[in-house]
């Protein structure tokens, strides 16, 4: 075990955890961020790095992976360590010899740390895409569940399956480079932002609704001799494509979190928090997608508010005499 005691340990290096880490570092706390993935950025890098985000303040539009790069830079300027490939497997409250205050002992797959406070920013836990189950014999490498390299789709024919924001966003994004994009959805209506549906209707994407994919088979294109997928849809029509991108959502798994020793109140996979984002345990806060309270939206921007709020609450408790917020201009040296 390391002898160091952190003021704040943040679990999760998604946008919420990164921004909370920046803010805690700017306020001169001894802070660290832990994440089980190999890269920072949470859902943004793991699920939609190429997608444009339009609802982050200050950006007209920003590519998800670029927002993460900027957040990491912003956080690292204060020397905040972002420890990747370290899954938190347990948190236990322990006594201190020199004081009555408890500490939290955080065990990861690599090390054990001590911290006065914890901010949980674990999103929905680890996530895996919902797999399309369909008949047929086909090359599974042509059925994709995330799109990390838009240029690979240059000049290709692509089908996208799904009816939510990500299916529409990906269809529009791919239509910029692909020869043809077809969007297949089982209902006539889409579960997406009104503006996205408007963009879709004005785009070159062929919308095939209400239809499902009944079968997928490998076929060889007679002209190019390239191997393709033939999709048979529920009305009997067939569609030949180079790739199928399935966007049916994600299954989240927080089994590891439920196994933590500390007894945290949860509502399904979310942590129940009070008006200051504290859980039922003193000095353990939860922010971002993992926090549950009335009116929670699940947007990046919410996590950006919740992080600084939680840090200020923690500082008021662990540092005497410095309880209030401060403006960033007063914390950066004058140039
Ligand atoms: C396709 C798609 C498009 C979206 N588009 C938008 C959009 O345009 N605008 C918007 O505002 N929101 C959008 N969202 C939602 C947005 O991505 C989330 O609100 C945001 O990612 C939440 O950030 P977070 O930091 O709370 O959690 P996450 O991004 O989920 O990050 C949580 C991190 O915690 C880590 N973690 C989990 N368990 C552990 C553990 N035990 N130990 C260590 N680390 C752990 C995970 O590895 C992960 O890196 C979109 C979501 C999806 C899926």
UniProtKB/TrEMBL annotation:
Q: List keywords of the entry alphabetically.
A: FAD, Flavoprotein, NADP, Oxidoreductase
**Any idea where the FAD/NAD(P)-binding domain is?**
6-306
Which cofactors? FAD
InterPro entries for the chain:
FAD/NAD-bd_sf (IPR036188), FAD/NAD-binding_dom (IPR023753), Fd--NADP_Rdtase_type_2 (IPR022890), Ferredoxin-NADP_redctase_2 (IPR050097)
Q: Which GO terms describe its molecular function?
A: ferredoxin-NADP+ reductase activity; flavin adenine dinucleotide binding; NADP binding
In this chain, FAD is annotated as bound at 16, 35, 43, 48, 88, 127, 289, 329
Instruction: Name the reaction it catalyses.
Output: 2 reduced [2Fe-2S]-[ferredoxin] + NADP(+) + H(+) = 2 oxidized [2Fe-2S]-[ferredoxin] + NADPH
Q: What is its EC number?
A: 1.18.1.2
- Superkingdom as given in the UniProt entry: Bacteria
Q: Coiled coil where?
A: none
Q: How is the cofactor bound?
A: Binds 1 FAD per subunit.
* PANTHER family associated with the record: THIOREDOXIN REDUCTASE 1-RELATED-RELATED
Oligomer status and interactors: Homodimer.
Q: Which family does it belong to?
A: Belongs to the ferredoxin--NADP reductase type 2 family.
| Protein name as annotated | Ferredoxin--NADP reductase
Q: Which organism is it from?
A: Pseudolactococcus insecticola
């Amino acid at each position: 075990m390391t002898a160091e005691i952190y003021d704040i340990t943040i679990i999760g290096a998604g946008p919420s955890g990164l921004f909370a880490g920046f803010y805690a570092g700017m306020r001169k706390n001894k802070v660290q961020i832990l994440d089980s993935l190999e890269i920072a950025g949470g859902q943004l890098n793991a699920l939609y790095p190429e997608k444009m985000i339009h609802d982050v303040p200050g950006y007209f539009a920003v590519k998800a992976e670029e927002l993460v790069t900027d957040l990491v830079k912003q956080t690292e300027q204060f020397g905040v360590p972002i420890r990747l490939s370290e899954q938190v497997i347990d948190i236990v409250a322990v006594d201190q010899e020199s004081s009555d205050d408890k500490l939290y002992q955080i065990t990861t797959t690599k090390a054990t740390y001590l911290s006065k406070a914890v901010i949980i920013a674990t999103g929905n836990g680890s996530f895996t895409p919902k797999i399309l189950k369909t008949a047929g014999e086909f090359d599974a490498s042509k059925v994709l569940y995330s799109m990390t390299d838009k240029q690979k789709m240059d000049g290709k024919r692509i089908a996208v399956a799904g009816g939510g924001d990500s299916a529409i966003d990906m269809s529009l994004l791919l239509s910029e480079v692909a020869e043809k994009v077809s969007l297949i959805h089982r209902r006539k209506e889409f579960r997406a932002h009104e503006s996205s549906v408007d963009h879709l209707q004005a785009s070159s994407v062929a919308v095939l609704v209400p239809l499902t994919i009944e079968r997928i088979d490998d076929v060889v294109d007679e002209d190019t001799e390239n191997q393709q997928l033939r999709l048979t849809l529920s009305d009997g029509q067939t569609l030949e494509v180079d790739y199928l991108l399935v966007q049916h959502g994600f299954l989240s798994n927080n089994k590891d979190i439920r196994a933590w020793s500390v007894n945290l109140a949860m509502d399904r996979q979310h942590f129940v928090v009070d008006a200051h984002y504290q859980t039922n345990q003193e000095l353990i806060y939860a922010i971002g997608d993992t926090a549950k309270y009335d009116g929670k939206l699940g947007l990046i921007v919410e996590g950006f508010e919740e992080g600084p709020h939680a840090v200020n609450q923690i500082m008021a408790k662990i540092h005497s005499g410095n309880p209030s917020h401060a403006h960033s201009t007063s914390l950066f040296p004058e140039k």
